[in-house]
Amino acid sequence: MIAIASFRGAPLKKILFGLAAALVSAGAVLAASQPPEAVRKSVQAEIDAALAPSDDDEPGYNPPRIVAPASMFHRADINDDGVGDWVVDFEKSPNASYFCGTGGCRHRIYVSNAAGGWDLAMDTQVRAFKLRRSKGKTLLDVDFHGSVCGGFGVDPCPRGYVWSDATSRFAARAGAGGETFLAGGPVRLAIPPEASLPAPVRAAVAERTARCAALGRRYPYEDALVTDVGDLNADGQADWVVGGPYDACAYADDGSDSVPLPQTIVLVSTPAGHVAAWRGEAVEWGLDVAGRAAAFVTLSGAEDCGLNGKDCRKTYWRWDGAALVSKAAEQP
């Protein structure tokens, strides 16, 4: 395998074009099932954007267009509806260095929906990726950059997910190695469309956006801390956490001092809709996915203990039918 530095510039692009041409002429790109046009166009747009001329390029530089090869696309059936879903491996793209790094390579999963289209269910970088079926369910096993689990880049960071027909998303589950506590909560595999959020969750995001605006700071939705934490009250519906200690609003691009953060809110589904079941300061938090219902966990103790969850006192908050209530904190 040839290692190519991951930076933008005309010489790098020319090398990439030469490699791509050589692979095609040698017949190294094998034919695969053709994805739907909407999926193909979405992936092609990412490749085009990565190779677009930049300020570092020579004046007048206009790179030729590279078409996403069929080898990037793999057919699957994630939601077991008989309609083809699609897995996209950007390591197979002609310009893979733009989509790969120490955290692995970018992967996408498009899952068919009832309207005849495809929803983006995963769009993130992982070092390992495995889809499998077990007991009639679709499971996803991945390995993130070690920093996601509070370690170093080379450290393993396995996480597991299961496809949920109820929410049409991947939900966090115990990992293949039995890991159940997720410091910082589950890693969201894709940013859900804001319009798809329950109204109370959207309202909580809007509240934070307005607060940031009042402080003269932007709070774009794609940077918002909005986390699907699975099912906290075992009713089959997704619950949400809005906020956390590393909220983008707290830190300005100009390096100015941080500002007080709005409270973290946990929204739990009820027959009357999602309700604010817990509000608190912007503490470190995590999720325990052991058992039938996941548990929201706040962390306290050593500074930045939430990075690994090992040096913290853990307080578990359980649904009592009206709110999340705590039991005595565990000692680290």
Tell me the layout of helices and strands.
Blueprint: H1 10-25, H2 37-50, E1 73-76, E2 85-89, E3 100-101, E4 104-112, E5 118-126, E6 128-134, E7 137-143, E8 158-164, E9 169-173, E10 181-183, H3 199-214, E11 226-228, E12 240-242, E13 264-270, E14 273-280, E15 284-288, E16 295-301, E17 312-319, E18 324-326
Antiparallel strand pairs: 1-2, 2-4, 3-4, 4-5, 6-7, 7-8, 8-9, 10-15, 11-12, 12-13, 13-14, 15-16, 16-17, 17-18
How would you portray this structure in words?
- There is one protein chain.
- It contains three helices and 18 strands.
- With 332 residues, the protein is an alpha+beta fold.
- It has a domain at 1-126.
- The strands form four sheets. Strands 1, 2, 3, 4 and 5 form a five-stranded antiparallel β-sheet that branches.
- β15 and β16 form a beta hairpin.
- The radius of gyration is 22 Å and the shape is globular.
Summarize the structure.
The protein is 14% helix and 31% strand. By secondary structure, it is of the alpha+beta class. The longest helix is centred in the N-terminal third of the chain and has 16 residues, at 10-25.
List keywords for this structure.
five-stranded antiparallel sheet, globular, 332 residues, disordered N terminus, 18 strands, alpha+beta
**For the terminal residues, how far apart are their CA atoms?**
44 Å
Percentage beta strand = 25-35%
Helical residue percent band: 10-25%
Uncertain ranges: 1-32
Q: Indicate the mean pLDDT.
A: 81
Rg from Cα: 22 Å
> Number of helical segments?
3
Order of helix and strand elements from N to C terminus: HHEEEEEEEEEEHEEEEEEEE
Number of strands: 18
Q: What is the overall silhouette?
A: globular
Structural class designation: alpha+beta
Largest sheet: 5 strands, antiparallel
